[in-house]
Amino acid sequence: MKRIAILLAAMAMALSANSQDRTLRVNYIFSGTAKEQEISVAELCSFEGWAGRRVNMDKLPLRGNGQIIMEGRSTKDGDFDKVLYKTSFSTLFQEWQATEEATTTRKAFENVFLLPMPEEVARITVRLFDFHDNVSCELKHVVKPDDILIRPTGGSTTPHEWIWKGGDDLNADLDAEHRIDVAIVAEGYTEEEMDTFMADAREAMASLWAHEPFGTYKDRFNIVCVKSASKETNVSVPRKNSWKDTAVGSHFDTFYSNRYLTTLHLFRLHDILAGIPYEHIIILANTATYGGGGIYNSYTLTTAHHSGFRPVVVHEFGHSFAGLADEYFYDDQYEEQYYPDTEPWEQNITTMKDFSSKWEDMVGKKFSNQKSSIDWKGKKKNPGKITVGTYEGGGYQSKGVWRGSLDCRMNTNSYPAFCPVCQRAISRMIEFYTEETD
Ligand SMILES: [Zn+2]
């Protein structure tokens, strides 16, 4: 009897999933200074298909530095009382707010979120949090699905090619399971360099699968390569006065930090992707200059021709996909991001405020690590047995923040694997996207 109930529930879920066939894309401008924030709607767009998750729609994957929530009404003209979709994110804007520049300047940043197109009028709430977990800014706006100003996009003309559909059978059904759709986007590759891009994209994928738990869960992913050609080869390096005309206009020296490679052009990035099934984004930059960045539920951007490409692309995806924190720290960090009164939402660091919500249950346990892990050059390397504990230093702070292992993919490029704490966090994230959880 129970089995039939489960089967019926699964069928109902599949039916409701099939009715979801359109994406609502909301373009926002987040602006402000170190002290204040403002959120404005720039434009609403829509396109065919929905590549986001089809399970756990009303639950958050993590708390995040910001959240977006879409609510509908149980009764016509009633309150918005029914959560239709929720997700969390981080932004470059909030990182910028911690810089010196933000104390003297006001700036604006593009942000894009993909939501399932509601069938009826819905209300969207976007909120940002400060370092103490307080809501620092909030915008609510109502969306009518028949609004004539929602711009249809899509039918993308950007050439694209799948290299993975839950496996290497590229004739497999894209939607066979609730798979996670990852787009790998070309940046700084000219039309003539697309073969190089495809080889780099395959290398990035191989490096992901060579890290647990991605290796174990690789059948839950689809990977599409997006051949967005740039007019010029390579990417911009402002400190060398070198600016290039590239697909997503990325550059090094973000916030005047040499190796921080990002793009501010999120509207352009999502225009390139419109119509292609995607949810998570990895941008590969055609350069040998070291750098990269990964922003939770926004994008990973990394350099494809530096010798550290393989570990770095996985490290950055750890940020953008799983919301993991950096586990390294500086001795002289004076600007704190993590305070003793607040437990960080990132699963791989703790301030001990609420350690039981983290890896307290893993402390003292030994983990043998692992069937897949690689060194700097992509060769198989086993890190051996690891005992999980509490090691002070992480999240850029040498004091007041603890991590679970001596070393990890989120700490150094030379270490060959994610630590057990990060592995569990990534596994949970993959399961969140692909299985109904309690
Ligand atoms: Zn870790």
List the helices and strands and how they pair.
Elements lengths: L1 H18 L2 E11 L4 E12 L17 E8 L6 E10 L2 H5 L10 E10 L5 E8 L5 E9 L7 E2 L7 E6 L14 E8 L6 H16 L11 E6 L39 H8 L6 E6 L6 E4 L3 E5 L5 H12 L8 E2 L18 E2 L15 E4 L14 E4 L3 E4 L1 E8 L16 H15 L4
Parallel strand pairs: 2-8, 10-11, 10-12, 12-14, 15-20
Antiparallel strand pairs: 1-2, 1-5, 3-4, 3-6, 6-7, 9-11, 13-14, 16-20, 17-18, 19-20
Helix pairs in contact: 3-5
Textual characterization of the structure:
- With 438 residues, this protein is α/β, with parallel strands linked by helices.
- It contains six helices and 20 strands.
- Among the domains are: 19-152, Peptidase M64, N-terminal domain (Immunoglobulin-like, Sandwich), CATH 2.60.40; 160-320, Collagenase (Catalytic Domain), CATH 3.40.390.
- 17% of the residues lie in helices and 29% in strands.
- The strands form five sheets. It has a six-stranded mixed beta sheet with strand order 9-11-10-12-14-13.
- It binds zinc ion.
- Zinc ion (ZN) is lined by residues 327, 348, 405, 408, 410, 418-419, 421-422.
Short recap of the structure:
By secondary structure, the chain is α/β, with parallel strands linked by helices.
Gyration radius, in Å: 21 Å
Helix content: 10-25%
CATH class of the domain at 160-320: Alpha Beta
Q: Outline, from the CA principal axes?
A: globular
